[in-house]
Specification:
The chain has about 325 residues and is an alpha/beta fold. Helix content is about 40%, strand content about 20%. The mean pLDDT is about 95. Bound molecules: ligand PBG. It catalyses: 2 5-aminolevulinate = porphobilinogen + 2 H2O + H(+).
Length: about 325
Amino acid sequence: MELLNRSRRLRTSSAIRAMVRENSLSVDDFIVPLFVQEGKGVKSEIPSMPGYFRYSLDTLTEELHTILGLGLKSVLVFVKVGDELKDNSGKEAFNPNGFMQETIKHIKAVAPELYIMTDVALDPYSSVGHDGIVSNGKIVNDPTVETLCKMAVSHAEAGADMVAPSDMMDGRVLALRQALDNAGYQDVGIMSYAAKYASSFYGPFREALDSAPVDMKDIPKDKKTYQMDPANRKEAIKEILQDVEQGADILMVKPGMPYLDIVRDAANEIEQPISVYQVSGEYAMIKAAVANGWLNEKEVVLESLIAFKRAGASLIASYFAKDVAYWLKE
Ligand code: PBG
């Protein structure tokens, strides 16, 4: 054949493939989710997340050294608290001496160079497993936002570098920005879960934190009145643009793999950094297939992550962050 363009020419050796490669992964791209609980000597594997653990503060110390040693720069902190601390108001969320606040101080003391991001939503503190306050069968927006503001300021006081509201209440980014500024925390950033879908891929996470909505009369069984409908695309851009306008510093799309179209739409639309969350169910799926010998873990994980970069994300929260940092060093 007389072909002028033969695409395969640029695939003939690993050298030329590397030279024309459009995207790459770096340890700087990753955010490490951390699950922390009270107690001593705890390193508890999450049953549906093989190889991923919940730590108590003493065992977390070693984990933080490992994370730093791998060159990773940031963590996203989630805490599991006892049922006795949960209620419908979520007031434990802004207890200055609460477990999240204690955890933030601990991380800052052990690893001052680590950039600390914290989850802001009421579900770990909610006796009914919702991200907001429930009243007459509804998750009430404005009172919830007031509580989230107190929560975010208490995280900043404890030393958080950035708060990550994952609650999907309306208007919370602006309210958080104003609350942080009024308290003197102009440099504390906001990574907004801007397009967060009501996804069934969060199952293992809710097991890890014991935070699923309870099965009770007058309590909504799912989060569909605040998280987004997986069928919607244009609405995601609306959410993202709103959060940009309200002062979000980083815009997140969540989950990851099934929502690459949304990541790309966001990248085409905004100039701010975009992050993506490869969530617990995505981790569980890959781990299950690997355990069966059906997929090659390293190859499939790296492929799933480069897809996020290709789609337009610059930051990736992933339970594989440590594995990738290790592989990149090899
Ligand atoms: C809570 C929150 C969830 C996740 C992050 N923050 C669960 C939910 O919305 O029910 C999910 C993360 C994961 O599945 O890895 N607001």
